[in-house]
Amino acid sequence: MRKANRYTLVLSVGVIWIVLDQLTKAAVTAMLAPGQGVTVVPGLFDLVHVLNRGAAFGFLNNDDTEWQFWLFVAAAVLVAGIILNMVRTAAHSRLLFFGFGSILGGAAGNLIDRVRSRAVTDFLDVYWGQWHWPAFNVADIAICLGVAAAAFVLLRQSAEEARGKER
User: Is 122 a catalytic residue?
Assistant: First the structure.
């Protein structure tokens, strides 16, 4: 695969995730005020409107810490740089490039929220009884899928290289 095609695939996947993320967040913002929710599957799944000023899954979710904004912006830029360098040097793998694009798209989707409103809109609430997974969004799904895809490919490549050295 030519280098230009790698970047086209990664950036196309990223843009698709950004569009899906921003469209779903806009729909939730239009339907629900912050703090409101609606039951979709009783006892299992709700749509909620949560403003998360912290990291993934509400970690460090505080209103009064401006430094977090700059930390998350810097982290997103750093991750993007690392991923784009990895795209340049990685062996050809559509799944790996899909993973990298998903991570970039998810990070960009949440970064757009942070820059626009200093908070990320989360809206998917999965729960069982009194136990709730922290609310999340499409960008978070993209990041998790991207990390899983990239890890799968990179671990498989590493195992194949190790087997090759044993022979």
Answer: yes
* 57 and 136 Cβ atoms separated by less than 8 Å: yes
Instruction: Report phi then psi at 38, rounded to 5.
Output: -140, 135
8 Å CB contact between 120 and 51: yes
Find residue 38's DSSP bridge partners. 47
* 96-126 tens-digit pLDDT: 999 999 999 999 999 999 999 989 999 999 9
Q: Which residues pair with 122 in a beta bridge?
A: 50
Q: How many domains, the chain?
A: 1
Residue 122's nearest CA partner among 71, 58, 44 is 58
Active-site residue (options: 21, 46, 125, 140): 140
21, 46, 113, 122: the catalytic one is 122
Domain span at residue 54?
3-166
